[in-house]
Write a structure and sequence with these properties.
Mean pLDDT: 85
Structural class: mainly alpha
Strand content: under 5%
Strand order of the largest sheet: 1-2
Radius of gyration: 20 Å
Number of domains: 1
Largest sheet: 2 strands, antiparallel
Number of helices: 10
Order of helices and strands: HHHHHHHHEEHH
Helix content: over 70%
Low-confidence stretches: none
């Protein structure tokens, strides 16, 4: 929320009000810092000896990163992807502020906007919409649950 005013000035300055591109610009501002911090733990957990052995075998530093470090930190990458996807999908404040055209609303803004009229809640429609919106997250999480849990613990234990 501390970034809200500067980001709204940037969006306004670029003329991106009421555009989905405003959200494409804004969402990385709060997903990338956490993702970088989380991935740091995974990369620090990889022993330097493995990278040095790859370098002695003639692999470049970038090649060692791609062939050694990335496969070993796949659980971390998956954790970051699931976390970022979930955070962006459920974000409400920026989407409500930067998008005013009802045809461009995100799911998190559209459901309460269209299915709540004053004190009248259309519970059946709202529950159906929430269920449909949660299906992609549930499928991704259930498909990768083992790696996701491993991803949260690998970077934390030394």
């Amino acid at each position: 929320t501390i970034l809200f005013i500067p980001l709204s000035r940037v969006v306004s300055g670029l003329g991106l009000q009421d555009s989905l591109w405003s959200l494409v610009l804004v969402y990385p501002s709060f997903t990338i810092p956490f993702s970088t911090w989380l991935m740091m733990g995974f990369f620090k957990a990889i022993p330097k000896d493995i990278e040095e052995a790859a370098r002695m075998d003639g692999v470049s530093r970038f090649g060692a990163f791609l062939r050694i470090a990335m496969p070993m930190s796949l659980a971390g990458v998956l954790t970051v992807v699931i976390f970022s996807f979930t955070l962006v999908m459920q974000e409400f404040v920026y989407a409500l502020t930067f998008i005013t055209d009802a045809r461009r609303f995100t799911v998190s803004v559209g459901v309460p906007t269209f299915l709540v009229r004053g004190d009248v809640y259309f519970w059946g429609s709202m529950m159906g919409a929430c269920f449909i919106a949660s299906v992609p997250i549930a499928l991704v999480y259930n498909f990768f649950v083992d790696r996701f849990v491993a991803g949260f613990t690998v970077g934390a234990i030394k």
